[in-house]
Amino acid sequence: MQHWTVDAPTTLDFDGVAALRVRVISGSVAVLSTDDQPRLDVADLSGQPLLVKHEAGILTVTYPDLTWDGVLGWLRPQPHSADITIMVPRECPTQLGVVSASAVVSGISAPTSVRSASGKITLDGVTGAVTATTLSGDVEAQGLDGQVGFNSISGDLTVADGAVEKLEAKTASGRVTADVEQSEFGGLTASRGPATSTLSGTLGSGAGRLVVTTVSGQVTLLERNNSGAPAADGGPETQKDAS
User: Fold this and answer.
1) What pTM was estimated for this model as a whole?
2) For 50, 93, 109, 149, which has the most beta carbons within 10 A of its beta carbon?
3) Cβ–Cβ contacts within 10 Å for residue 74, how many?
4) CB 166 within 8 A of CB 177
């Protein structure tokens, strides 16, 4: 096992990374795919040092008392901040948890889970099973391909240019906007339960599945034509709204 205590800007290289687990508080985190050697770049750091561990192929970057399950519960003000970039193989499963830090995940083609309290989450070209959970942080995603799960209290979800197999979104007051390939809607069904509204149906030929549940948030689905392109002659895409 390799172990580091990082209290200043630094760069660390690793022989191989089979899985990534990151938990930070404020600042910024970028997880990027690479075909080169895995690397951690810490550009700026204040407050408590980061703990970095590389064991059995698992790379962990965290603080001593910040656990994965406790990320969303750590809402008291903290002076700890870090700006880090992590380069890992494209097929590296990733767990990323932040409090108020902005988070970017790009090019990963393995199961990816991101949790945030108030930090913004950006997903770019992530394929496979993707789960994003926030309190008030917004999620912006493009180029997704696979199964997507989204849960929030007031955070918004925006999906563009995706080819998702399944989109399941649950929010209290956050807005959900989805523009995905094969997004012809088949048999959309709206239902109401105690204090919630649900919109569900199939995508494209029926292989894809859509389920959106909200309390008061607005849902906007942008429908494309059979070719997967926007409406002909540059016209507006068909919108199906639910709230």
Assistant:
1) 0.79
2) 50
3) 16
4) no
